[in-house]
Design goal:
The chain is built from 13 helices and 13 strands. It is an alpha/beta fold. It folds into three domains: 156 residues, Rossmann fold (3-Layer(aba) Sandwich), CATH 3.40.50; 81 residues, no CATH class; 101 residues, Diaminopimelate Epimerase, Chain A, domain 1. It has a seven-stranded mixed β-sheet, sandwiched between helices. Strands 8-9-10-11-13-12 form a six-stranded mixed β-sheet, with helices on both faces. A hairpin with a 3-residue loop joins β12 and β13. α1 packs parallel to α5, α1 packs antiparallel against α6 and α10 packs across α11. The protein is globular, with a radius of gyration of 24 Å. The protein starts with a strand and ends in a 20-residue tail after the last helix. 37% of the residues are buried. InterPro entries: DHH_sf.
Length: 389
């Protein structure tokens, strides 16, 4: 059964995806940066699952259930009822925000009967469908919930070494995410949070297929050292070596890989040819969405040097735009977006004020660079065409 995971864009969200990905083959992971974005994300998933020919499993971790998310859960149950038992999808929701309980109750979702292994703080909710499991437990982070309830999705077991790494990761994330300062591992575990934020966006962007594997391996590499008692300073100094080992494995066999270069320089060719990160628009320019500034600079250089495109544009969620070229078109294009700068390095802004995805950014840019021609047939003066006084 194909598994898709929706999870938060923070240490706990990635910890949860690391745990799930260790015990099951996850087809796709979607990281949600803001709780306000949960609604649009689950609506897209609902539409996709309605069209799916085969049953799938959707796992939601560390996503606070606002009203629109609860509505999605009810719509999911209604969809499953229409699809029938054999074609019905599975849904697993593991959350630890107590406000989610309030939202579920407010929309009339009934608490489910407790099972023998329930503990204080765990709230189960019923949707009259055994394929739907919704649990909210404020006493455990999402990473620990995913670990403690792995029997609900697991398809295989890791080896002993990986199991030990996962156990250390779970303990560390649980202490940091729930701010358990009294826990012996809390002080040491803070290094995971710092290194996570230092690496999550600056090397392999979230839209790239290798992103989750990169972050998960980095977290596990640090967790293993935590489990052995290494202090934060030692782990921080070793992060470069851990990351280099991951990249060595990832780029094994790449003909253009140069191990004498920095990590960003080594990754740039891999990222430059990714259709998940770049989309071409009319005129030959390539557009990316939400790339870290340093990553965009390295990758755009590779794209232009290869002759793939002479103009590369990066759009941030806030609507800010960066233009890079090697034929002095960056400034001319930026001016169409109320921008300015150098001939080959400029900035601007989307006219709408923001973008939600690469597809949205491409559509907005295209509407400015290639505005639709007016349909004169709908003009009130169309009837006068050909009239002679």
């Amino acid at each position: 059964m194909k598994i898709t995971q929706l999870t938060h864009h923070d240490l706990d969200g990635y910890g949860a995806s690391t745990v799930v990905g260790t015990y099951a083959d996850v087809h796709r992971v979607v990281h949600v940066a803001r709780y306000a974005d949960v609604g649009p994300v689950v609506e897209r998933e609902l539409g996709r699952l309605r069209r799916a020919e085969q049953p799938e499993m959707l796992v939601m971790t560390d996503l606070g259930l606002e009203p629109v998310a609860v509505t999605f859960l009810k719509s999911f149950a209604a969809m499953n009822a229409k699809r029938g038992g054999e074609l019905g999808h599975r849904l697993l929701v593991l959350d630890h925000h107590i406000s989610s309980v309030d939202q579920l109750v407010a929309q009339g979702v009934r608490p489910a009967s407790a099972s023998g292994d329930d503990r204080p703080g765990l709230n189960r909710f019923s949707f009259d469908d055994p394929a739907i499991v919704v649990m909210v437990d404020e006493t455990r982070c999402a990473t620990r919930l995913a670990y403690d309830h792995r029997e609900l999705y697991a398809t295989h077991a890791p080896d002993a070494e990986m199991e030990a790494g996962i156990a250390a990761l779970v303990a560390a994330v649980d202490a940091v995410d729930l701010w358990r300062k009294e826990h012996p591992i809390f002080r040491q575990a803070l290094v995971l949070d710092e290194v996570f934020w230092d690496n999550v966006s600056g090397f392999i962007p979230a839209a790239h297929p290798q992103h989750d594997a990169f972050i998960s391996r980095l977290l596990l590499g640090m967790a293993v050292r935590l489990g052995k008692g290494d202090v934060p300073a030692t782990i921080e100094r070793e992060v470069g070596a851990i990351r280099a080992h991951i990249i060595d494995t990832m780029l094994a066999g790449e003909r253009d890989d140069d191990r004498d270069m920095t990590t960003r320089m080594r990754l740039a060719p891999l990222l430059a040819r990714s259709p998940d990160l770049f989309q071409r628009i009319d005129g030959g320019a390539k557009v990316s969405f939400g790339l870290d500034a340093g990553t965009f600079q390295r990758v755009s250089d590779v794209i232009m040097a290869s002759g793939d495109a002479a103009l590369v544009i990066n759009v941030q969620r806030s609507g800010s735009m960066a233009f890079r070229s090697n034929n002095e078109t960056a400034l001319a294009t930026a001016r169409k977006f109320s921008g300015g700068g150098h001939k080959d390095a400029s900035g601007g802004r989307l006219p709408s004020g923001g973008a939600t995805s690469l597809a949205d950014a491409v559509a907005q840019i295209a509407s400015v660079l290639n505005p639709p021609k007016p349909d004169l047939s709908k003009s009130p003066f169309a009837a006068l065409q050909g009239f002679k006084a």
